[in-house]
Amino acid sequence: MYNRCFSCTFYTTDFTHLPELRQLRAGKAEQLAALESAYGSVLTAGSLSAANLELLRQEIQQIDELVGKCEADIGSLTPEERTTVESWLHTRDRFLTVIPVAAVLAGRQRLDQPTVDPILAEGTTG
């Protein structure tokens, strides 16, 4: 779960990716919890470890931002479109449900402030 494409300045997403965004967030939250519990014991405390923990925290916040924006897009749809989209998001076979074009065009979302890797920003390596 080290994929950081979502935090690039050119990355955009929309509500059709909500399940994947939520799965990515859950994975990063699990990873953060594991690293936090190991910090100072199994994981050696230091600037690199602290920077990785902070980066994960920032990424989780940014995924939350993207999810919130995509959910707001769904909220802006007509009730009929919203019902169709919600059904589509929760179906196992997404190819059987057609999403209205207006709903798909509701918006492309990106982060207001993409992640800056604290390791690179501080110029530290260990």
Lay out the secondary structure.
Blueprint: H1 18-38, H2 47-75, H3 79-90, H4 101-104, H5 118-122
Count of helical segments? 5
Order of helices and strands: HHHHH
Radius of gyration: 18 Å
Q: How would a textbook summarize the main sheet?
A: none
Number of E-state strands: 0
As a percent range, the share of helical residues equals 55-70%
Specify the structural class: mainly alpha
Low-confidence stretches: none
- Mean pLDDT value: 76
Cα-to-Cα separation, first versus last residue: 22 Å
Strand-residue proportion: under 5%
Mass-distribution shape: elongated
Molecular structure report:
This protein has 126 residues and is mainly alpha-helical. The chain is 56% helix and 0% strand. The protein is built from five helices and no strands. The protein has helices spanning 18-38, 47-75, 79-90, 101-104, 118-122. Helix 1 (18-38) packs antiparallel against helix 2. The longest helix has 29 residues, at 47-75. The model has no long low-confidence stretch (mean pLDDT 76).
Give a summary of the structure in a few sentences:
The chain is mainly alpha-helical and 126 residues long. The protein has helices at 18-38, 47-75, 79-90, 101-104, 118-122.
What are the key terms here?
mainly alpha, 5 helices, 56% helix, elongated
